Amino acid sequence: MLKNEKGILDLFIQLVKMHKIYCLLFILTGFWGNTNYAQQTQNNTDQLLLQAREAFQFKQYGASEKILQTAIKNYPEHIHYRIELAQEYRAQNKLNESSEVLQKTLHDRLENKDVFLLLTDNYYRIGAYKKALKTINKGLAHYTNNGLLFEKKGGVYKALQKSKKATEAYATGINKDPAFLENYLNLARLTVRADNPEKACVLAEIYILKNPNSKNIIDAKKILRASYRNLYLNFNENLYLNNKDSCMSLFIDLYKRNAENLALGIDAISLCKLRSKIAMQAISTGALPYHLETVWNTLMREGYFEAYHYWLFAAIEDPNTYTAWLQYHKGAEKELIRKINSLEF
């Protein structure tokens, strides 16, 4: 085939791929006269999004933008067109254009948590943290129990270097929306090096138990190990620990009572011994935060506790040891994860 003929063929194929996009543009802009799109079904309106996304995928940004802008004009109540356009602008790093779309959406009283989240993130990216905070607070006025919004609020306060405010945001997020797990990990990150690492001991482990397949699992494990180490150092330095939470106070008391198990080093085996004693003693003395004593005793009773500690600690502190351990315990990790996912607490 001649070079020119091949070029014409390639162009023809591209036009075929884009044919329905341009046809849609002609329909939307009235090229074929007056249409009855306002009476189309939800399936038809969904097709507009598909067409815009396809155009964007082929880097036909102008075509995609035109589809969405016309759709917004014809169907102003369909908020997903506005969100899609704002997202496409964000993908092109056109944050000002994206923010204008989102601001107009809120001005038109089309409140949606995704609009608040996207606009907050736009402001965050350009360093307009006060605007971001104002936006997220408006969002929380509408969605008072949304954990993701509280996470974003905490992130803005961290950017403003207001750790106390960030801590309050994450803690409130946990209280309002306990099923949203990222606030546990975010709060653990803030408290692991603070004067109360006992909070991080609990929060990081709850995150791990609730979400053992998380992409942040390694980070959570590192925080958990560091929090146990920091709490041990606090005891050695005779730092006064006082917690009004009775469950947390019990955890601190039992930790201190059994801390000699860590005297020769803080590793998977020593932590396993420490935590097994805490678990057994807590059964007769009271409940730990989130009833961790029940979880630990269940794992001990069913023969998973050692494997749990190798997975928690050895896997990050000494990968070679963990690999060797797995060779002698074929399928142990998979079975452990299955067991963790089945726990109810």
Structure overview:
The protein is mostly helical. The chain is built from 18 helices and no strands. It starts with a helix and ends with a helix.
Labels describing this entry:
345 residues, mainly alpha, 0% strand, disordered N terminus
Percentage of helical residues? over 70%
How far apart lie the N and C ends? 69 Å
Largest sheet: none
Individual helix count: 18
Question: Which stretches are poorly predicted, pLDDT < 50 over at least 5 residues?
Answer: 1-41
Q: What's this entry about, in short?
A:
This protein has 345 residues and is mainly alpha-helical.
Write the layout of secondary structure elements.
Blueprint: H1 3-28, H2 42-57, H3 61-74, H4 79-91, H5 95-107, H6 113-125, H7 129-142, H8 147-159, H9 163-176, H10 182-191, H11 197-210, H12 217-236, H13 246-257, H14 268-285, H15 292-301, H16 305-317, H17 319-328, H18 332-342
Helix pairs in contact: 1-2, 1-3, 2-3, 3-4, 4-5, 4-6, 5-6, 6-7, 7-8, 8-9, 9-10, 10-11, 10-12, 11-12, 13-14, 14-15, 14-16, 16-17
